[in-house]
Amino acid sequence: MKLSSLTRSTPLEAVFEFGDFKIRLRHASRSDLQRLAQSCTTQRWDKGVRVSVLDDKKLAKEFGKLAVVGWEGLTIAKAAKLIPLDLSAVDPNTEVPFDLDNLNMLVEGNTALDRFIQETSVDLAAFQPDAGEELKNSEASQSGN
To answer: pTM for this one?
Structure first.
């Protein structure tokens, strides 16, 4: 039997707890990561030598698009525990909608969340159906810049 005949056609997804909210992640395979790195690498000439340069910011954004599907229960008050926000003109119980701009702002501002997404999304065991409930508890703290 060939393992290639058993590969999944859809990526694995699961919901994980991070502090006070839930985040839905998609498993990122080694080949996904290689494609991302390649698409975020440019070639340039430096003193007559061709050099590959990885665009770290582009890679972080593209990885977010690949690995994060959405979140539930993230309010402005909870986001303010992750990054500095001015709550004076808003209702702190307002839900923060999931979009790539909000995701990038949180990931750029909070190392613990960034690390959690990176480490969890590449851990195949965390996405296995026999790993227990769909809801996984993170041991990551909410802060950690």
So the answer is: 0.80
